[in-house]
Write a structure and sequence with these properties.
Keywords: Signal. With 262 residues, this protein is mainly β. Helix content is 5%, strand content 51%. The protein folds into two domains: 157 residues, no CATH class; 73 residues. The chain is elongated.
Amino acid sequence: MLRLRRFLPSFAPLSSLALLGLLAGCGGRTETRPVSLEELADRTLTFTLVDLDQLETPDAAGSHRFTLTLSQPEEGCTQLEAGVTATFNGQLMELEPGGIVGTGGREVCEETRAWLDFNPEAWDAEPVEDARVFLQGEDGARVVTLILQGAKAKRHFVYEGVGAGTTLRQGQRYTYRWQPAEESPGPVTASLLREEGRAPAFLQVEQDGSAVSFTLPEATPAAIHLLTLSANLEATVLDCEGVAACVGGIRHASDFEVTVAP
């Protein structure tokens, strides 16, 4: 059993929600104003598809989740009116309408947020599809639309080479490929965390499209390690309606338990 003091890299920058919290109580953000879907035309929709295959905590909250947020106006704090539903490829999403809430004795202006926790095994068995996200009012009118090309797909880093890849030898070169192979993720990072280690060692990598390669340093200790490959992917927005802009991306990481040998 691999026992590690896990170093968890942060994929996300300081969220706009946190920034709103820092600004709460200033600039007229002390009252909540109801807002309809039709009034979101000047807002930004931000989305993130997180797909983290973690060996130590495979069922960690949020590790396989699609999330969208709707920005607040520059002045005031709004809450999405009752009766709105959000769906992801027909599945109902959890929806928080936003507005002023009390947190730790202070008032915070929260953004409207919707999310769906997906089953990675189910997605792995299903074909790649466009992600189709809709926010609808009680009358069923489709007002806010987000369609992402091929976004509903289970992503992996797959070992390419002789054997199962469970043993890595010092000084040898190894290659892994992002799947689906048609995608080209942003810069891939690779790290090794030794069993009972406190901080990972980052490896120098070479990337060619969906393939990433590294040479295991000769000085790597012979021991059990956690190899983590991670990258972001720019999502292709096919349709964005009902808001001013749709921005976001896809984040994936794969963990591998490996034995480093001379």
